[in-house]
Amino acid sequence: xxxxxxxxxxxxxxxxxxxxxxxxxxxxxxxxxxxxxxxxxxxxxxxxxxxxxxxxxxxxxxxxxxxxxxxxxxxxxxxxxxxxxxxxxxxxxxxxxxxxxxxxxxxxxxxxxxxxxxxxxxxxxxxxxxxxxxxxxxxxxxxxxxxxxxxxxxxxxxxxxxxxxxxxxxxxxxxxxxxxxxxxxxxxxxxxxxxxxxxxxxxxxxxxxxxxxxxxxxxxxxxxxxxxxxxxxxxxxxxxxxxxxxxxxxxxxxxxxxxxxxxxxxxxxxxxxxxxxxxxxxxxxxxxxxxxxxxxxxxxxxxxxxxxxxxxxxxxxxxxxxxxxxxxxxxxxxxxxxxxxxxxx
Length: 345
What we know:
With 345 residues, this protein is an alpha/beta fold. 34% of the residues lie in helices and 18% in strands. It is built from 12 helices and 13 strands. The strands form 3 sheets. It has an 8-stranded parallel sheet with strand order 2-3-4-5-6-7-8-9.
């Protein structure tokens, strides 16, 4: 197979930041995807509908001329989120979910939730108005091994949330373990999951073997090989509970390569090409369209896109970096060869 034509996909988990970084990265997403769920962990945080709509306007203003890309906005969940704001979000055309970050779990998450039981009234209201909950599923106890934090969250907190709010639509974001995959498979059709390209392509050797590779460092961290295989099986199964969410997270190269490098992989430059590599490796390219183009839209109760895109088997070298206002962003797989290429109109 040398060409694949797909209904235009969507990215159901994306970071685009703001300012100069936004102006650099948004064109990469817009040339591949019709829509994307935009994460709210900016500085300052996106806590209200009005802030989300202002951020959406900034994104639209940064798009290349003629782009049809549609940013789908989210709110950052804190215990201060009011019932009135939830109702306002549910009725707002451009607000599609609320994001739960456990306090301290990842970038700009210090204001996240430290007491899950304390937000249960908020989750009840979200269930009543059918506003989806997006979860970064990790515990943040310092005594918990970083490779076990997703499993511990699944075993404790996620189980309780699903049991207490059976009609709440939940996306378990960027699943990384077999345990998370098994949980989603066993749950009702109200529970789904996104999977990133890095977690399909790499195991933890990619971060640690032969030297520390900071541009492979993300949270949740990449796990052992048997977890990667479970993710590949889920993504390529044709099960509509699993769909594309890059978690592409641009950071300046200097911040990634510092003594305390920040978490996040920048994959938006070639997201579909990266997913195509993972699917082709297990002879499952015929399953890519459902995963990338259909299942997420169906879960979010949005119409599927009608435009199409084409990938061609064409080796190309990933750039070493992308310039950002006197700095750079280093992409995932910098200076490496990808075997699929998006054909641009």
